[in-house]
Design goal:
- The chain is of the alpha+beta class.
- Among the domains are: about 160 residues, Jelly Rolls, CATH 2.60.120; about 120 residues, no CATH class.
- The chain contains 13 helices and 36 strands.
- Helix 4 crosses helix 13 and helix 11 packs parallel to helix 12.
- The radius of gyration is 28 Å and the shape is globular.
Length: about 700
C-alpha cells in the first residue's frame, strides 16, 4: 500500500530541507520524479510558502532553482524530498516563469491564487455542456494567466495514494478556446471573475466526480469518528485479489449482456431504422406520456424504438444541420433516413447530433430512435429542445454549432411518435466493486495526493447524492472541511447550495430532501470558521439536475470568497436569516443585508418554467410558511417592514389565519422553491427553517 510522505501532518525530518543554498551544494545526478500537480503550467500560491516535492534515490541531492534563488534538499531513506519557496514578495506575482529541478526544466509557471474546486457533477460539469448559453464567450476568450489541472476520478479503497491517478486526467493548461471544452464550468467562470477582481494569475485544481457521495471525500479518521459504518463496509474489499476477481466477473458478464442486447434486439435484426420499413402497425404515442412502453402494468426495461416522419423543403437540403433531441432516458442511438447520426450512453447529456449535408432529402424523412431504458417512467425530458435547426449562414463552424438553439429555419420534432418494443432485458447483473460512494475512495486518490499544495481557498459543490441523508451530511461536511484544513490551513471555504430542481409543491408541509440538504449546507457554513454559503436556489432548472447558468453561480461564489478574504463594503449576499421573534399570531423575521445601503425587495412578477409548466409569479411576497404547536405548516402572508437608516437588519412580518401562535418559520422550503424575497443588490434570500433538521 503506497502512501505519500505527508510533510504537513508529519513534520519535517532534520536535514531534508534547506532553502536559499549557495551553488556549493552537491551536484545532483540521478533523475527525480515529481507528482503530477508539480508540472509545466502550474500556478504557485502567492503570499505563502510554495511546497515543491517529489521522489529520488535515497540520499540523492535535489536542487530547485526559481526566480534567481536555489533551494535544496536531500531525499530521505524512503526517497522523499521537499523544498519550500517563500512567495511573499509582491514582485513574484505573475509569470510565466521557469523552474529547474536537477535535470528537469518546468516552463510556463505563474504565481497567483490557487483554488481547490471539489464536489460532484455540478462542480465538474464541463464547458462543452454550456455552449447553449456561452458559445461566443467560450469560443473567443483567452487568458494565459489562468490555468487549470483536472485530476482523474478513479476511486480506490487501497489507502491514501502518493500521486493523483492519471487515467482521465488533464495536465496544467492555460485558458484558451481549444482547451476549455473539458474545463469545469464553475472553475472557468470563477477564475475569470477572480482574475477581473484581483488582476493576479489564477490556478484551478478541478477535483470532482459526478454522482459522488460525501463519504468518498472524507478521510478514514473523519468517518471513524462520525460514521464508522462506512469504514466497515469497505474492509472486505481490501482482501487481496477480491476486487480483481470481481472486476473480471463484471467484465465477463458485461460482454455477454451487451452481446445479447445487440444480437437479439429485433429492431436491429429487422432494420427498424430503415426509412422504408413498414411501421403502420406500430402504436402511436405522445412523447411525454409516462406510460410509454408499459406492458401488463410494468414499465419496460430494454429497448424501445421510436419513429417519426418529417418533411424537409428542397431548399434546405444539401446543407448541414443540427438535430437536437433534448435529453433521453437512458441511452440512445439515433438514425435519420437509416443512417446513424449519433449516440449517447447515459441520460444527462443534451442530445446534439450533426447531420451531414447528405443526410436529409427533399420531402419525406424519417427519424428513428433506439432508446435503452432501465424502467424510468420518463423517456423524453420535457421542456427541452426537440427540433432540427439549420444555421442561418448555411455553414457550420465545427463545435461552435453545438451551441445552436434556434435558427431562421427549423423543423419541430415534438409531439407524436410511432413506438414498438424491442428487446426485453433485465438490469445488468454484477458483483460489487469500488465506486464513488465508498468510504474515503476519492479522498485516497484525489484529495490526499494534493495535501501538500498551498491554496488560496476551497470551493465545495456537492450534495445532490446525499439529499436523502441531510442529518448525516451536517455531521460530515464540517468535519471533512476541518480535516482538510489540517493540511491546507485555515483557508476560506465557500459551500455551494443546491440549485432548484424537480417539482414545486403546493403542500406547505412538503419536507423534501433537497430543502433539508440545503439547510445542512447553510448550517455547515455557519458552524465553520472562515466559511460562507453561496445561494444558488434560483439558478437551477426543474428538469435538469445540471443547470447551465454556471456563470452567475460562479459570480456569486466569487463574491463570497472575496468577502471572506477581507474585501470591505462588498455586496456579496442576498438577505440572510438572522433571528425570529413570536408575538401573538405574528412571527417577526429579521434578515441581515450585506451592505447598509441595501433594502429588502419583492421580485417582480415573472414567468418561470416549473414541473407544472410555465407559471407566472404574482409579484407578491410568497414562499414563507408558519407552523403552530401542532407542527403543521401553512402558507403565510408576508409584509416587509421599513428599514432603519444605516442598519444592516430589516424585518418581515408573517401571519396566517390558520396559525394562532406560530412557533416555527420556513422560507423557500422546497426542491424547486418559490423565491420572491431579494436584496436591492439583486440577490435572493437564502432558504431556511427555524426547525432543527437534526433529530
Amino acid at each position: 500500500m503506497k502512501r505519500i510522505f505527508h510533510f504537513i501532518l508529519s513534520g519535517l525530518t532534520a536535514g531534508i530541507i534547506f532553502s536559499g543554498l549557495s551553488t556549493s551544494f552537491l551536484n545532483a545526478s540521478a533523475a527525480v520524479r515529481l507528482p503530477h500537480v508539480i508540472d509545466n503550467g502550474m500556478v504557485l500560491q502567492r503570499n505563502d510558502t510554495a511546497q515543491i516535492w517529489g521522489w529520488a534515490e535515497p540520499g540523492e541531492a535535489v536542487r530547485v532553482s526559481f526566480l534567481g534563488k536555489t533551494y535544496a534538499a536531500t531525499a530521505d531513506a524512503d526517497g522523499r524530498w521537499m523544498v519550500r519557496i517563500p512567495t511573499v514578495r509582491k514582485k513574484m506575482v505573475g509569470g510565466p516563469y521557469v523552474m529547474k529541478i536537477n535535470e528537469l526544466t518546468l516552463q510556463d509557471i505563474y504565481v497567483g491564487d490557487v483554488w481547490l474546486c471539489s464536489g460532484q457533477s455540478n462542480m465538474d460539469l464541463h464547458c462543452g455542456r454550456l455552449v447553449d448559453l456561452y458559445q461566443d464567450e467560450l469560443n473567443s476568450y483567452s487568458n494565459p494567466a489562468i490555468h487549470l489541472i483536472q485530476t482523474a476520478r478513479n476511486p480506490t479503497v487501497e489507502g491514501p495514494q502518493e500521486d493523483i491517478d492519471t487515467r482521465g486526467y488533464y495536465a496544467w493548461e492555460s485558458l484558451k478556446p481549444e482547451n476549455v471544452e473539458h474545463w469545469s464550468g464553475i472553475g472557468y467562470f470563477y477564475a475569470k471573475a477572480m482574475f477581473e477582481a484581483t488582476g493576479v494569475p489564477q490556478g484551478i485544481i478541478s477535483a470532482s466526480m459526478g454522482g459522488s457521495d460525501i463519504v468518498a471525500w472524507c478521510s478514514e479518521s473523519v468517518l471513524s469518528e462520525k460514521a464508522p459504518k462506512y469504514i466497515s463496509d469497505v474492509r472486505h474489499l481490501q482482501t487481496p485479489g477480491y476486487l480483481e476477481r470481481n472486476a473480471a466477473i463484471n467484465r465477463a458478464v458485461g460482454q455477454v449482456y451487451n452481446k445479447l442486447y445487440e444480437e437479439q434486439d429485433p429492431g436491429l435484426q429487422q432494420g427498424w431504422m430503415n426509412p422504408d420499413y413498414d411501421d403502420s402497425d406500430w402504436e402511436t404515442v405522445d412523447q411525454y406520456d409516462s406510460r410509454i412502453g408499459d406492458e401488463n402494468g410494468r414499465t419496460w426495461k430494454g429497448s424501445l424504438w421510436f419513429r417519426k416522419e418529417f418533411q424537409v423543403p428542397a431548399e434546405l437540403c444539401g446543407r448541414e444541420a443540427l438535430l437536437r433531441l433534448g435529453c433521453l432516458i437512458d441511452a440512445d442511438v439515433c438514425y435519420v433516413n437509416g443512417r446513424k447520426v449519433g449516440e449517447t450512453g447515459y441520460q444527462y447529456p443534451p442530445r446534439k447530433y450533426v447531420l451531414g449535408s447528405q443526410v436529409l432529402k427533399p420531402g419525406r424523412n424519417v427519424l428513428c430512435i433506439r432508446l435503452k431504458t432501465n424502467g424510468s417512467r420518463e423517456k423524453f425530458v420535457k421542456d427541452k429542445l426537440y427540433k432540427i435547426i439549420f444555421p442561418d449562414n448555411q455553414e457550420l463552424k465545427g463545435k461552435a454549432l453545438l451551441g445552436l438553439t434556434q435558427g431562421k429555419n427549423e423543423i419541430n420534432l415534438e409531439g407524436q411518435y410511432k413506438l414498438r418494443r424491442g428487446i426485453l432485458m433485465p438490469g445488468q447483473p454484477g458483483v460489487e466493486g469500488v465506486n464513488n460512494a465508498r468510504a474515503s475512495a476519492l479522498y485516497n486518490n484525489v484529495i490526499y495526493p494534493l495535501l501538500n499544495v498551498r491554496v488560496a481557498g476551497i470551493l465545495w459543490y456537492q450534495g445532490e447524492t446525499n439529499a436523502g441523508r441531510p442529518e448525516e451530511y451536517l455531521q460530515l461536511l464540517p468535519a471533512m472541511i476541518t480535516d482538510w484544513r489540517k493540511s491546507f490551513g485555515e483557508k476560506p471555504v465557500v459551500i455551494c447550495g443546491l440549485a432548484n430542481y424537480m417539482e414545486r409543491h403546493a403542500d406547505a408541509n412538503y419536507y423534501g430532501g433537497w430543502a433539508r440538504l440545503r439547510e445542512a449546507q447553510r448550517l455547515s457554513a455557519q458552524r465553520l470558521p472562515n466559511a460562507a454559503f453561496a445561494n444558488l436556489a434560483d439558478l437551477g432548472e426543474w428538469n435538469d439536475i445540471h443547470p447551465l447558468n454556471k456563470k452567475e453561480a460562479a459570480r456569486r461564489i466569487a463574491l463570497q470568497m472575496r468577502r471572506l478574504r477581507g474585501e470591505k463594503n462588498l455586496s456579496s449576499d442576498g438577505p440572510v436569516f438572522e433571528s425570529v421573534q413570536y408575538e401573538g399570531n405574528r412571527a417577526i423575521v429579521t434578515f441581515r443585508l450585506s451592505a447598509a445601503n441595501e433594502q429588502l425587495q419583492v421580485a417582480p412578477a415573472r414567468e418561470q418554467h416549473t414541473s407544472q409548466g410555465v407559471v407566472r409569479t404574482s409579484g407578491n411576497l410568497e414562499g414563507f410558511k408558519l407552523a403552530g404547536r401542532d407542527g403543521r405548516y401553512h402558507w403565510a402572508k408576508a409584509e416587509i417592514q421599513a428599514p432603519e437608516p444605516g442598519s444592516l437588519l430589516q424585518q418581515v412580518v408573517l401571519t396566517s389565519d390558520a396559525v394562532a401562535q406560530p412557533v416555527n418559520v420556513r422560507y423557500g422550503w422546497d426542491d424547486d422553491p418559490i423565491l420572491t424575497l431579494f436584496s436591492s443588490n439583486g440577490l435572493p434570500a437564502v432558504p431556511f427553517t427555524t426547525e432543527k433538521i437534526e433529530k
